[in-house]
Every structure is written in C-alpha cells, then in structure tokens.
Specification:
The complex is a heterodimer of chains A (524) and B (210). With 524 residues, chain A is of the alpha/beta class. Chain A folds into three domains: 168 residues, 3-Layer(bba) Sandwich (FAD/NAD(P)-binding domain); 150 residues, Polyamine Oxidase, Chain A, domain 2; 70 residues, de novo design (two linked rop proteins) (Up-down Bundle), CATH 1.20.1440. In chain A, 31% of the residues lie in helices and 19% in strands. Chain A has 16 helices and 23 strands. In chain A, the strands form eight sheets. A five-stranded parallel β-sheet of chain A has the order 11-2-1-15-23, covered by helices on one side. Chain A is globular, with a radius of gyration of 26 Å. The termini of chain A are far apart. The N terminus of chain A is likely disordered. The N terminus of chain B is likely disordered. Chain B is built from nine helices and no strands. The structure holds flavin-adenine dinucleotide. The site of flavin-adenine dinucleotide has 39 residues of chain A, from α3, β17 and α16.
Chain lengths: 524, 210
Amino acid sequence: MTNPVSRREFLNLLGAYGGTSAVLQAGAALGFMPSSSQAAEISLKANNGKKVAILGTGISALTTAWELTKAGYDCTLLEASHRPGGRMFTVRAGTVIDEIGNYQRCEWDDDPHLYFNAGAARIPSIHSSVLKYCKELEVELQVFVNESKTAWVQDDAMNGGKPVRNTDYSSSMQGFISEMLSKSLGKEQLDSSLTESESEILLGMLRSFGDLNEDMLYKGSVRAGYGSGGFLDHGTKRDVIALRDLLKTRLAGNVMVTTQEGTGSGPLLMQPVGGMDRIIYAFANRLGDRIKFRAPVTEVMVKDDGVEVAYEQNGVTEVLKADYCFNCIPSHLMSGIPNNFPDDYSEALNYIRRGKAYKAAFQAKERFWEKENIYGGITWVNAPSAQIWYPPHNIHGKKGVVLAAYNFGGANYTEMSQEDRIEDFLAAGEKVHPNYREMAEKPITIAWHRMNHMLGCAPRWARVRGGWSEKEEAMYETLRKPVNGRHYLIGDQSTQHSAWMESAIQSAHYALADLDQRVRSEPA
Amino acid sequence: MKKLITATTVVLSALCSTVSLAAEGDVGVEASMDDRYCTTCHGAEGIGNIAIEAPRLAGMEAWYLKRQLENFRAGIRGTHAEDIQGIAMQPMAAKLSDESIDDIVGWVGEWEYVAAEITVDGNVNQGRTAYQSCASCHGANAEGNEALGAPALAGQNDWYMITQIKNFRAGFRGAHSEDTYGSQMLAMSKTLRDDQAVINVVSYINTLQK
Ligand SMILES: Cc1cc2nc3c(=O)[nH]c(=O)nc-3n(C[C@H](O)[C@H](O)[C@H](O)COP(=O)(O)OP(=O)(O)OC[C@H]3O[C@@H](n4cnc5c(N)ncnc54)[C@H](O)[C@@H]3O)c2cc1C
C-alpha cells in the first residue's frame, strides 16, 4: 500500500483545525461527565376549571392537553387535518396520505409489522420527556437499529459503482486515519503536549482503532469482513480498498457517523412497537372528544381576558372562547391566519423558515436484505433518495417495509412527480440489491413540503450556518413570552433545537410552567 | 393509566378503554377528501400568505381564477425552471378536473374581498406615471378588464405582484407558446426599466385598494 497523504500534508490539515493543543483542550472538557437529562416534573395547580383552546394536535399540543386535563382544566383541541399528530405520522394499510396534489392511499397488507414512520422515527435515549410519556401512557418501545456494519455504501464514483459493505468502508477508513495519525504524532510532537504514558495510551488506541500491524501500518483487517473462511477455516482478510478510492465518495461523512446531531445520535435508538403514532394515539384516545378534527383555525384574537379562536367545522364558522390558548400551528401557516398579535411577535413568527424533507417506502415481497446478512441499519446511496433503512423488527418474518428514501435540504422529491420519485429510489436501490425493483410493492412517497396542514419538515431559525444572530435570539425570546399572558406559541418552532419530539414536548412544559405561575399568582 | 393518581383519573379511564388507532377524525376520511385544500397555502379565506408566497385569492374575478387554474393544469404557467413560486403552485392544479375547477371557482367566490397588507414603500409619484401605460388594460383604478383579459391588481399582495412582473420581464411567466394573455403582459412588463421601477408602480397600485 502506498501512503497517499504525506505526513507534512496531514500536519497542515491538523493545523487548519486548530492543531493538537486545541484538540487536547477540547478533550479536557470531556472530563466532565454531562449529567443525565431528566424529564421535567409537572405539577400544576389542580381543578380550576379554566377553559383552554389548543390549536393543532402536534405532540406539543397533546402534551399540553394531557397535563392540563389531568389538572382539571377544560381543554378543546382544534385540528385542521383528519388525523392527529402532525409530523408524527405512521403509514400502514388503509392510511390516507394527504400530500397536496399527490393524494395516496396505502394498500399494504394489513399486518401490525408493516408500517412506515413517515415523519419522526427515532427516539434517542437522552430524550427523557418523550420516554417519560411512553412509560406513563404505556407505549411499548423496542430498540431501533440505526447503524449496521453489513449495510451498504453505493456511489457510482467509487469501486466501479459496486456497493461496498459499511464495515469494509469504515474499517479501512479507520485504518488509514489511525496510520496517518500515528505517523504524524512523532516523538517530538507528542513530548510537548502529552506525557509518556498518555502518548503510549494514544498510540495503543490508534493501533486498536485502526487494527494496525506491529509497524503501525494498516494492511487490511478482518473487521472489513472475511475474504474467505472465518469459522471452520481460518478467516482471511479481504483486499484493501485504497484510501484514494474511499475518498471518491462524498457519502464518507454519513457512513462514518450515522448520527445526525450530537444530542440525538447513536447506534442505539428506540421506536414504539407498531409505529410512532402509537404515542399520538395514546394521548388522543385519552383525550377523546376534546379533539375536534377537520376544524381548521381561521382567526386568533387575543383579548384582555382570554382568547377568541374562530374555526371552521362542516362549512360553518364557529368561535371558541377560552381563558388561554396554546398554539402549535406551524408559523408559516399562522402567517396566513388573521390574528391580532403585536408587530414584534408577528415579525418573529414570519421570520421562521420551513425546511424541506422527504421520505419514501415500499412493502417488500420478501425480507431480501436478511439474505444479505442485514438486520437493520442504513445503506447510503448517492442519489436523491439518499438512504435505505431495513426494518429492525419482525426479523425473519414474511414481508417488511423498507424505507426507500430519506433526504433533507434540497427540493428534489418536492418537485418531482410520484412516478419520478419512485423511479429514482428504485434505480438507486437496484444498484445495491439487484432484485430491489422486483421486491418492491405498492410504493409510498411523502414530501413534507407538500403535506396538507404542515407544508414543511421542520422550522429553520438561523439563516446562516454556525449559529444564531443576536436578532434571532431576540425574536426567539419574543415568541417564548405569551401574548398578553394568554397566547402561547408551542412546538419545536418555539425551541432552539428544531426537528425533535423532545423539543416540542419541552416547549409545552416551558409554557405550562409559565401558565401555572400566572394561575397561582391570581387573587383567589 | 393505572398509575395515574389525579382527580380526573376516573373520567379519563373511561375514555381510554379502546386502544384504537382510529381517532374519531379518521372515520370516512376519503369521502371528505376534496380539492378544496387551497387555504393551507393561500391563507384562511384566501387572504394570501407571505410565508408560502401564495397570493390573495379573496375577491379574485372568477374568469381570471379559472384561466389561471387551467393554465397551471395544462403546464402553460408554472413550468419554467426558474419560476420557483409557479412551480410550487403548478402540481396543485395538475390533477384538478373541470368539475373541481368549477367547484373551486364558486367556493373562492364566497370569500369577501380584503385588501392585502402593504409591505413595500416605493416612489408613488414615479409609480403613478409608470402606471399610465398599464391603465389601458388593467383599468384606471386597477379594477381589471375582463374584455381584455387583464385582472384586477388593486388589493393584491404587493410582494406577489413584484414577483410576477419580474417573472414576466425575465420570461419565466408568459413565454409559453400557448400563453396568449401572458405573452401580452410579458411585452408590457418590458416598459418597466428596472427593479426599482417595478417597486414604484406596485407602490402606486397599493394606493388604489378599494
Ligand atoms: C421527516 C421527519 C423526520 C423526523 N424524525 C424525527 C425523529 O426521528 N425523532 C424525533 O424526535 N423527531 C423527528 N422529527 C421531528 C418531530 O416530528 C417534530 O419535531 C414534532 O413532531 C413536532 O411537533 P409539534 O408539536 O411542533 O407539532 P407538529 O407536528 O408540527 O403539528 C402541527 C399541527 O398543527 C396542525 N395545523 C396546521 N394548521 C392548522 C390550522 N389552521 N388549524 C388547526 N390545526 C392546524 C397540523 O395539522 C398539525 O397537527 C421528524 C420530522 C420529520 C418531518
């Protein structure tokens, strides 16, 4: 194997990122174990009979309604859609997909294992509030496999377009990185910043991380998968894919880190047995007819002593008068609903942009991935469809639902016809699994930008990468304060970490705490 | 539920006896699905929504509305690769039937005219001068002229009119060979020299709101 990156180049690279000492300083901070996050304890002043209007039935709204109902408030939820849950949406036999201009009905087999979480799908173990409600409402959870080393990476630019196992890719990448790093961290370099025992441990770690040989060189590893044998016969190493070839694909980042964000990452995540909407219906069934469906809000007027909400039901406009209002209607839809919010509040509301994301799925005739030793995890492809997820549940069952596309950022599926979307993910999947097209039954696609009553996948606050501006921070504070002490904006739009259920729930807890304080301080 | 120890436990337990996935709203869902989804984007009673860049429909002339829906459906409008907003609207009309279009035109007709909120602040005097060449088709009070096929402009969202005039000037709208009316407007849009002239004329149109 030739050494494709010189030591000098590598040190320059390190320097560009702040150099070793910067890395060490960052490392020092890791010495402090983050305290484990705990769900907030909600204890509201009970049974005051106050009327509350809750707009939308996103998880933030359902949390609010549930906590307030337990405390004896009189809640009414107004939901524009025929279903509760907003972005927590599970598709199974019979589900109607209300994408505007691309209405679909799911006709998969009627089987509890055959479902597809079209919105939220994964629960990280530190999302304590989500987990708290799953426990309280007896929503059964199971492990979700986010990363499988036997899943594939496919890019026409790499390996002649032939798919490579995740483990083949990542083991070699780890090997090369370790080799380069150990060479670069020469004696004099280490002496200046590390003690002898620290550098010994570091080099030992690098050897093990990269599976390097005695000379600290990467010469292939059985971790990449056996070339032959492995059980009755000695396992042999596979041919090493050259670093230069691994660097042909921009998927590298995804393959090496199956994590989306620091806080929501990890190979071990969770999902409710039977679909993410089990959480939604656990709330909704308990709230019963407090929820009005197909009741789009058409006006929100904050008064001195309460809130008046107009909504449509069966073609008639009704008005709901309440003491308080909690609103999770997406900000970009609120700007099309007449209201009397103060100017700075409206300005902040209109500032938030909406992100684009799409998913697709099909029912597989057979669990073909299991024949390829795959039992979960993600295959990465260089196509608009981007990802393939294999269901981690119902192993060795008859059929399974494969997530055939999941991507965010660009428009792609949003602007494609249903036929073109399906062709995109079939063509991409076929390069990985030769029988993919033949296995795919009854495909479903969902572009969140076009989903009725949502028109977006997640609120986007910051306009530039790398952080929030002062102006954005100020607008956020404006929106967190209730209008006139009566109207609360909730949902992940009202948090600094959008696109998580945990954030949406915590926004509800934050608003509830504020409400409770006001109620307690009222003269008796 | 067993673990709940609040005063409302009894009431709530009664409600959760069925662990159903069909909340009430799911029943008969398909029967009630129709093509009246316009307000999700165009705002309650079609008042327009700047965040979606979807203009006011309330008060729009039936003949103009019908023509636009038909043009979108046929791909005469909203198919130019750089017509970003038109591309968002085009698929919304692509599957409408003739009956559906008639139904929608009747439904939209029920919404009262409301003048859109003013968001631009150009030079009204210069805009007035520029508008003289528009008045022959759109009317002195921007009330529209059915005989000429030119819609009312008074009361329309100013941000929307700005996009449209820019799109006409750039050939993103009105350049399709079958867009008879759009092509007339495309020609007229060239009389406005630059972006500032567009803002000025729209600022003047803002003063004509009913
Ligand atoms: C593709 C995708 C993947 C995701 N993956 C994950 C994940 O793995 N893990 C995770 O934790 N989170 C994930 N999320 C994010 C998570 O789904 C959201 O953060 C959360 O569900 C937002 O809840 P919310 O309370 O803000 O309300 P929303 O879900 O935004 O609900 C808004 C509600 O308002 C209603 N509404 C709209 N207009 C009106 C009106 N005029 N009148 C009345 N009601 C109206 C809507 O119908 C809807 O019910 C994902 C989201 C998407 C889209």
